[in-house]
Design the sequence.
């Protein structure tokens, strides 16, 4: 039984010297992160496809049971809108090949303008994807969450293809006005859609955005602790990514989420022990 947890990145200036060693080379940052969490969002691939050598270094820093949810590049999803981007997609998938089984899913995040009228385009794109990988889709158009016909239309495309629908739960963020600069930034940039908790596959993926105040973040994830517990009891293998507006404590909070679920599901595999923030010495 496995619950994967992680964050939106594996390096953050405010983690250094608090959770992770203060002085880490780029080639060691992911390794240190992976001692805290066993999954990570691959958001940087949206902006540029990394070199194969870079991806090989990611594989070298993680065990085979570590999980990446890797975002497809912006030219594929936002510029070409899933049409005529075969070369960009092929180059991306080739670059990711060294990760092997570490790729939990390739994440197709679609723009907010991608509406129910575009579902046929998505269906054609999914049919053309190479076999042997798992895929997950995140939509942000409100109709998919508020119009039952639109919701069912999308599910009828995703579910038979074994493609997960990734919810980004921002409801706690928008439950009250922002109280910090980071929250004000999130208030203007994050999607404002209802919470969705239905899984389509055996490996559901959840993105949860809390608040800068820890108690509000923890209170807001209570429904997810309950839902993830149900999924585990059903034999599913969920992955949950914990975000906060400034992400300063997201690394610790992801582990706390795992601990809260494990308190109710004691047979759940534990996370690894974190690497100390500084090497231990005799003097």
Sequence:
């Amino acid at each position: 039984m496995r619950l994967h947890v992680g964050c939106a990145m594996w390096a953050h200036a405010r983690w250094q010297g608090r959770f992770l060693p203060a002085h880490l080379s780029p080639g060691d940052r992911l390794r240190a992160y992976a001692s805290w969490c066993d999954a990570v969002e691959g958001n940087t691939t949206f902006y540029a496809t990394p070199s194969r050598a870079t991806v090989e270094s990611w594989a070298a820093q993680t065990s085979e049971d570590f999980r990446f949810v890797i975002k497809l590049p912006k030219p594929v999803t936002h510029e070409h809108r899933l049409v005529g981007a075969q070369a960009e997609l092929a180059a991306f998938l080739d670059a990711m090949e060294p990760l092997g089984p570490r790729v939990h899913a390739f994440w197709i995040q679609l723009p907010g303008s991608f509406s129910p009228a575009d579902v046929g385009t998505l269906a054609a794109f999914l049919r053309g994807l190479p076999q042997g990988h798992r895929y997950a889709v995140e939509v942000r158009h409100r109709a998919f969450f508020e119009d039952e016909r639109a919701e069912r239309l999308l599910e009828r495309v995703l579910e038979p293809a074994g493609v997960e629908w990734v919810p980004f739960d921002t409801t706690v963020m928008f439950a009250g006005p922002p109280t910090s600069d980071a929250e004000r930034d999130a208030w203007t940039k994050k999607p404002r859609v209802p919470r969705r908790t239905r899984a389509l596959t055996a490996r559901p993926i959840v993105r949860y955005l809390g608040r800068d105040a820890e108690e509000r973040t923890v209170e807001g994830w209570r429904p997810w602790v309950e839902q993830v517990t149900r999924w585990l009891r059903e034999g599913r293998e969920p992955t949950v990514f914990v975000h906060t507006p400034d992400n300063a404590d997201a690394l610790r909070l992801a582990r706390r989420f795992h601990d809260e679920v494990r308190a109710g599901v004691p047979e759940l595999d534990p996370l690894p022990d974190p690497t100390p923030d500084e090497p231990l010495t005799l003097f």
User: Anything to note?
Assistant: The mean pLDDT is 94. The chain has one domain: 4-264. The first helix runs from residue 26 to 33.
